[in-house]
Amino acid sequence: MKVSLFATCLTNAFYPEVDLTMAKILKHLGHTVDVPEGQVCCGQIAFNSGYVDDAREVARTLINSFERSEVVVGPSGSCIAMIHHYYPTLFENEPVYLKKAEDLIHKSYEFTQFVVDVLKKPDLGAHYKAKATYHPSCHATRLLGIGEAPLKLLQHVNGLELLPLPEAQLCCGFGGTFSVKMPKISEAMVAEKAEHVLASGADILLGLDMGCLMNISGYLEKINKPVKTMHIIQLLGEGMKS
Amino acid sequence: MTNTNEFINHLASKLGRPTPTETPPPVEISVPQYRLSNTEERASIFLQNWQALGGKGAIVKSENDMLQCLKEWFGDLPITWFKDNPQALIAWDMLPSIAESAFSTLNWPLTRYTQSSLDPRDRYSIAAHAELGITGSDLGIALSGTIVMNSDPLRGRVVSLLPPRHLAFIETTKIRNNLFEVLEEISALGTPPAAIEMISGPSRTSDIEMDLSIGVHGPIEVYVVVIDN
Amino acid sequence: MTMFNLTTDQRVDKALANNFLRQATRRATDRLRNNKYKASDELGNWEEWRNAGETIRKHVIANLDFYLHQLIEQMEQRGVHVHLAKTPADAVGIVRNIVREHDAKNVLKSKSMISEEIHLNHALEEDGAAVVETDLGEYIIQIAGEPPSHIIVPAMHKTRQQVADLFEPIAGHALSSDTPTLTRFARIQMREQFLRGDIGITGCNFAVANTGSIVMVTNEGNGRMVSTLPRVQITLMGMERIVPSFRELDIMLNLLARSATGQRLSSYTTILTPPKKSADSDGPEEYHLVILDHNRSEILGDKLFRTALNCIRCGACFNVCPVYRQLGGHAYGSVYSGPIGSVITPLLEKDWKKWGHLPYFSSLCGACTEGCPVRIPLHDLLVKLRMRKTQSGHTPQVEQQIFKAYRYLFTREKTLRRALRLGAHLQRPFVRNHRITGGPPPLSNWTKSRTLPMVAPKPFMQIWADLNNKR
Questions:
Q1: CATH number at residue C106
Q2: What percent of chain C has pLDDT over 70?
Q3: Mean pLDDT across the stretch A107-122?
Q4: CATH code reported for the domain at A121-241
Q5: Residue B103 sits in which domain range?
């Protein structure tokens, strides 16, 4: 299969290794990988802040860049959820782009969803000895309905002990611009999330959205708690090296 | 004050069409409803649920059972109550016959609420000072442990409300599986009575620190005798 | 009310500094949420019940004019006085007139969010009537002079000691602060009031259109008291609170009780079809129904927000909301708090200056939408409100500029690469141990409580291009 990567704006700028590792894993699974030019961002930051017109142009850019792709895979439940959940509303008055948006919806997947549900490869033969816990990001879980896929991948990682995260369903307080627009509320939320992460007894916090992980790790770092945070892709990538 | 037509027309304009002249076709509802297989099972589940809510209850098959049950619950209390208050037991005009004869046998005289005074304020006060309110029930709901009472000139709405204790009688055949069946049966009667009271257990509140507290305004103790004959 | 005089920021600070409030809110919402899960799971097919609830609510709202008309006709035929209020002021005026006409001195109230919405008590008290809130939680906050902090548990923010302190001056002696004592005090205190009440004012959980019935649920029994003992009764209802018939009522009562408190049915579910029959021994002789619009008709006409009218006021969204969990209700500043409050307050009150902060009291995590028994897409509605606010020019200039810049850069990948390279340079003064620890606003809002990873020396798009020997 020819897989086009959607390098989200956040991983592109801050965590390029996540995108790179995603490419490596997909190649390892025998697929051709490309990264269509011109792609930047799903537009969620603006959309969720109420700047729909600005969001629409950013979304249009993304749609254009994937127009010729067969399958699009991204390392973020939130960005894929933006496409699936909101693009139809965004382009409701533009039949041409509505059609294009629907095409993109039908061919785009979050990484774990793609590997487990589409490729049916829950076992990537990874080894990683650690105690970890998993934060189910809100948009992946509630908007995309991703439940088991990431857990299946993790259950197949040799040596990985997966510990339950108390109150896992609680949002970490990131919420995109929410974290800077309502910083105090956001801080209270991430403080509680950190409390549960620490209570889990895990050494590593895993997730499938770098936004949430950036928020939680940023807080843990500030309060000097040595819990490492990793995208599932990073853990799999490390685990597949051995 | 706004005129009805003006008010309704304003809504129609907001909905972008004239007000329908016929009742809109009802929506389809398909929820699998809770059902039990027979009267006996309904009675026993009803009782279980009533007790889980903090109510006392028993199934009686004979007058003897009934006497035993009332004695066990109230002992000689009613006799003591009478000494201070001859209207301590306040009841509907008519109770199931097995209950009426049990009270005669026990020699616990009942004050009939509707006849207790001509003035409603006095009646309320009598009920408020009574120790035990005694009623029948029109229907029951097994799933939620609920008794259902329709208002009626021979009854009093406050009998099940103002006294600190409420004793209700219900025949097993009146217990339905779920709320749906109860509402269906009541609607079949035409215009509903002025008040339908559905009671599930004692009065309760969790308003202070989420701490469950029984008996804030309504009865503190609730009893139900399920009559199986 | 003091809460209403503070700025949003001050209210948030106040809430976050109140440890009891935050612990109590956590504990209460956890409990209510878990109860709800039990009660919804035992049905085995909750999603079907939700579907039914959503279908019924949508149908009612789409035919609101018809059903409201039917309700009014049914009521008037039987001699109920129906009053239609366009505005809160109209509603207050109507109730005031009834109270004056009867020269009522003692007004009893059972829980009504509409009365909070129209700020009724104050007006009646000005006229010299004694107004008693009879729901225990409402009674507590009435004495404290505060708005409700939760739609189902209005005094959730009060400790039992605070409640004891509020009750003591009324009792005239010391009260121990255990709940049974406090509850008993309220029972005894209220008993006398109930028997003295001239007019009873209740809320309305549902109104049944084809029978002209009012449905009220309470757990304490105060609703029954208020709707039985006084000679005159007034019911306040929001105009959307309708079900077509008893058939739909079954679904809605199940959804309400299970979602609100995790009960199969509330302790007391009362269906009133007023007024009383002439031979009935009990019940009010005179019955008034006040139906309030207060911009609900505007919401009805606004396709983007119409689903907000589907709400059945169960509070389930409060109990799953991670923002409400941290703050409790008062930080919102509005009568209706929690996710649904953030949605309806700006729509009802139409004042961005005062209520413009509410749509942002959400991380858009979607827990509210998932928890809503009638499937209102609450977090989507919050986004749409932000859109409305933005489009009407009520957002800050700086914010508008930032998103203009965002749009420019994020539609030009190559330009963004250069900008990121610049960012990688500019971040240097703020970097400690490979993390960004400070910066200009709005970045500083982040770095006050968190660090940020460094902008990568090369963005992924550049790395990939280099790997593939592209420009």
A1: 3.40.50.10420
A2: 99
A3: 98
A4: 3.40.50
A5: 30-227
- Out of C242, C274, C297, a domain closes at C297
pLDDT at C267: 97
Q: Which of B11-25, C275-289, C376-390 has the lowest mean pLDDT?
A: C275-289
Query: Which residues on C lie below 8 Å from A7 (Cβ)?
Result: 460-461, 464
- Report, as an integer, the average pLDDT of C134-145: 96
Which DSSP string corresponds to C307-320?
GGGG-----HHHHH
- Where in the sequence is the domain holding C428, given as residue range(s)? 412-467
Average model confidence (pLDDT) across chain C: 96
Q: Which tens digit of pLDDT belongs to each residue from C203-214?
A: 999 999 999 999
B168 within some domain: yes
In chain A, where are the structural domains located?
2-117, 121-241
C403 contact residues in A (CB cutoff 8 A) = 46, 49, 51, 54
B-contacting residues in C 131-190 (Cβ below 8 Å): 134-137, 140, 153-156, 158-160, 163, 179-180, 182-183, 186-187, 190
Phi, psi torsion values for C137, nearest 5 degrees = -65, -45
User: Do chains C and A have 3 or more beta-carbon pairs under 8 angstroms?
Assistant: yes
C406-460 confidence digits (pLDDT tens) = 999 999 999 999 999 999 999 999 999 999 999 998 899 999 999 999 999 999 9
Average pLDDT over residues A89-101: 98
What are the DSSP E strand ranges found in chain A? 2-5, 32-34, 71-74, 108-110, 127-134, 158-163, 204-207, 228-231
Name the domain count of chain C. 2
Does B38 map to a domain? yes
* C104 domain-assigned: yes
Burial of C190 by CB count in 10 Å (0-12 exposed, 13-18 middle, 19+ buried)?
A: buried
Q: How confident is the model at residue C1 (pLDDT cuts 50, 70, 90)?
A: very low
Alpha carbons C407 and C425: distance in angstroms, whole number = 22
H or E segment at C271? strand C268-272
Q: Is A119 helix (H, G, I), strand (E, B) or coil?
A: coil
